[in-house]
Amino acid sequence: MLKNLLLLFVLLSAIVLTEATAAASADASEQRTILVLGDSLSAGYGIPMDEGWVALLEQRLAQQAENAGYRYRVINASISGDTSRGARSRLDRILERHKPDVAIIELGGNDGLRGIQPDEMRRNLAVIIENLQDAGARVVLVPMKMPPNYGPAFTKKFEAVYEQLANEYDLVLSQFILHDIAEHPELMQEDGIHPTAAAQSRMLANIWPVLKQILPLPDAANNQSTEPL
């Protein structure tokens, strides 16, 4: 009798383990990846990492996961001080480790500040976009702006790069990430360049409207509903 009970216990345990493994596999298959490729504005310079806009994005997606029926993980591959040149050089290594469904490119500010010409920035961003699209990612491009003291000719050519790339590669273009932030000193750190923790929710709000339009649902591959969040 005892032997039979032990055998029954082992069989039940195996069934539970199998079901748990299957559930975990299902969760993994439904999990999508968002890659953020940016500079200090996305790396959370001067503030706790868990208070940055990228962390807030992950929190928002987690809160909506149950109703939407899927989960996202957010990979923040942003580095303070990075340029389009630097991001281009490290993208291959990133894509070896991650296969993003969606990629957010927030780059160019340091290019302008360091005097990298818009033509070079455009070439670098074009390669980044092409590599991400070839990897199967839908791309959100975040336009940057330069301070007016750089002169109208430079700033106009610099800002035009983002519209040109969006048109050429059929990208979703968000608002300027510091829209309604940079002009408020109380939302900027003492350096006047980096936003405070209080500004991070506004930064997310500047990107979220276009991002939510392209977030794929887990059953998109089965040609079912692809309604956004």
TrEMBL record:
Q: Which Gene Ontology molecular-function terms are recorded? A: phosphatidylcholine lysophospholipase activity
Going by the record, the broad EC class of this enzyme is hydrolase
Entry-linked Pfam families: Lipase_GDSL_2
* Sequence ranges assigned to domain SGNH hydrolase-type esterase in this UniProt record: 36-200
Matching entries from InterPro entries are given as: Ester_Hydrolysis_Enzymes, Lipase_GDSL_AS, SGNH_hydro, SGNH_hydro_sf
Query: What Enzyme Commission number does this protein have?
Result: 3.1.1.5, 3.1.2.-
PROSITE patterns in UniProt: LIPASE_GDSL_SER (PS01098)
Instruction: Provide the protein name.
Output: Acyl-CoA thioesterase-1
Q: Which organism is it from?
A: Methylohalomonas lacus
